[in-house]
Design goal:
This protein has about 70 residues and is mainly alpha-helical. About 60% of the residues lie in helices and about 0% in strands. It contains three helices and no strands. The chain is globular, with a radius of gyration of 14 Å. It starts with a helix and ends in a 19-residue tail after the last helix.
Length: about 70
């Protein structure tokens, strides 16, 4: 199996995991999907953008932020 084929399989597998989370949770954040799937937030964001461009997802807005998270 070539590297490209492995990358394609990983990509499809990651998309599948994200779609499962979206199906099981009507309103879920990218960060929460990353935690539940053990994917990096960067990977989830990239795949989210792909699903968004294909009109698979609907944005519900921003969630409540916390006092202790994020970059200063």
């Amino acid at each position: 199996m070539s590297i490209s084929s492995k990358d394609d399989l990983n990509h499809l597998s990651n998309l599948k995991h994200i779609k499962q989370q979206l199906f099981n949770h009507s309103a879920i954040s990218r960060a929460e999907i990353a935690r539940k799937t053990d994917l990096t937030r960067a990977t989830v964001s990239s795949l989210f953008d792909e699903l968004d461009s294909q009109n698979y997802i609907k944005h519900l807005g921003r969630g409540k932020s916390t006092e202790n998270g994020g970059r200063k």
